[in-house]
Amino acid sequence: MSDYIKKLRACIRWYMELEDGYLAEQEKLRSTLDAENSRHTELEAQLSNAIEELKAANLDLTRRCESLEETLNREKSEKLIAVESYEKEKQERESAERSRDVLTVELERATHDAKRFSEQLKMVQDTNKRLQEYNTSLQQYNSNLQADASKSGETISKLQKEKSAMMETMAALRECHNSMSSQLESSRASQQEAIRVKEELRKEVECRRAESKQVRDDRDHAVAQLNSLNIELATCKEQFGRASKECECMSTKVSALEETCNTQQEQIQTLQKQLAVATDKLKLADVTAIEAMTGYEEQKEKIKYLEDRLAHAESQIVEGDELRKKLHNTILELKGNIRVFCRVRPLLRFDGDSNGPEGASISFPTSVESAGRAIDLMNQGQKLSFSYDKVFDHNASQEDVFVEISQLVQSALDGYKVCIFAYGQTGSGKTYTMMGKSGIDQKGIIPRSLEQIFKTSQSLESQGWKYSMQASMLEIYNESIRDLLAPGRPNSFDMTTSKQYTIKHDSHGNTTVSDLTIIDVFSIADVTNLLEKASHSRSVGKTQMNEQSSRSHFVFTLKISGSNENTGQHVQGVLNLIDLAGSERLAKSGSTGDRLKETQSINKSLSALSDVIFAIGKGDDHVPFRNSKLTYLLQPCLGGDSKTLMFVNISPEASSVGETICSLRFASRVNACEIGIPRRQTQARPFDSRLSYG
Questions:
Q1: Which domains are present in the chain?
Q2: Would you say 41 is a known binding-site residue?
Q3: 425 among the known binding-site residues?
Q4: Mean pLDDT, to the nearest integer, of 436-458?
């Protein structure tokens, strides 16, 4: 009996120690719960509306829990049912925990804490089960030790009270778990609603984007139609003007014809009188006529002989002129100099007088050695003379200009690198010289050169030559390279575009620009379409000196690859045609804002070009090609590996005499530069297909 009592006391002590541990754990759980409650205060505030709706359900669940607890105290069987119900709730809680991954970080922490509380609750339930087992053991001891039961009754009652307190704690934890589960469901519903709203917004955004794209397409179509109508209107105006002039001319001619008719009627009457007299004389003249016919036949044969000699002499002159041009080109190539052509544009209706208050005027010497190769400029009584390879006055047509450079363009098909660029102040006619205008007679160097290239390449097919050509177009705007043929490029360039292009020169003298669009061309129509696209994309602006001033340097490059199946020869030529932006004085152009920045950038790059020419002219070891994107791009053209020609365009306005003198002096300096003899690029196998600016 004493052994049982000792075991019972030991069990009671163990139970009391275990109770103390549970109390300490309970206090720890309470403090943790308080901390979690304070940490989730903000979340509970956001979910307060949902909690208010669930208060009635929570109250009902609380009442049910209290009923179950009372039933648990009365009957052990009902306790078992409550445990099974708890296990079911536990399964539901685990299912809720598997779904919590879609909640926010705060809800994940709350669910994690709820799981931890549930595990602690399970530990309490396990302890309760163990207590029940001990209670059963104690009852067995009680049946065997009735005498000791009276003494330990008070202790058992105390334990039962503590058990009831622990059950209340368990109920409170269950209530907390239920509240967390309700919040979890509410948060899940809110998230689903947010996902639905997000999907609706996404669909609406896609709809708006489609509508915006349609509006842009309609706008572009309307702009294209407007441009077409403007062109047609200008054509109609021009035709109307010509028709009006022709009508006035015809009216004048009709009046003149009427007067002439009256006069002729009077003359007819007089002639009829004279006819009778003349008839008599005619008989006498017949004899003389026979003699005259004999002399006429002799004179006719003599005239034919002289005409044949004249035609032969003219053909010799043409052949001699062609030979002179070839010999001149050969001499220039052997000298290695940059060829310079000067062109003076005609006065426009809005220009001032060519003879200004300062007495400035332009003239062209007519001596044999200077005709077509020199220009004189009078400024403040001082005569300045300049001579170049060719000088075109204001009467020179686009055809006259192209005839002089056609052989140079032909060199690109022969495997040479050719570079032609236009230099001059704003409004001096550079873009007109290079690009021209609509109309057969108004075409500039670029379209005429391409027509000659394609026409000649087709004629050489009979000799076994086959050519492939690639074109690219870029502009240098504010020291940044822009691809004028980039896919999807709008008519007006987006100033926020920040794509970077890199210029690279290889050891063979070839130049490439990274990421630049290169397009295969097969006909003049292909190139014409590309030129139109580039012209719409090029940066232009209005200044006080020019309504349509080019604000960037335009570079057109045609890479030509040719192969001859009969000889096995391959040639690689490059044609660079460049329209430089015009130099301008800030005080005269009135540039401000973006135009001021553009002007400063243009003048800086042209100044860098002048520094390069000056260094080449002096024969310096170091030539500062890297001072600007323009000079670095033109390095192969100015470095002796290319046939290079510069057009210096000048304005006849007296107010522009300062810029004209600067342009002419710069052209003379360029003409004096010896850059070396260009090399023809031929080889026994096809050349690398990368586009070269060299």
A1: 2-206 (no CATH), 394-683 (3.40.850.10)
A2: no
A3: yes
A4: 92
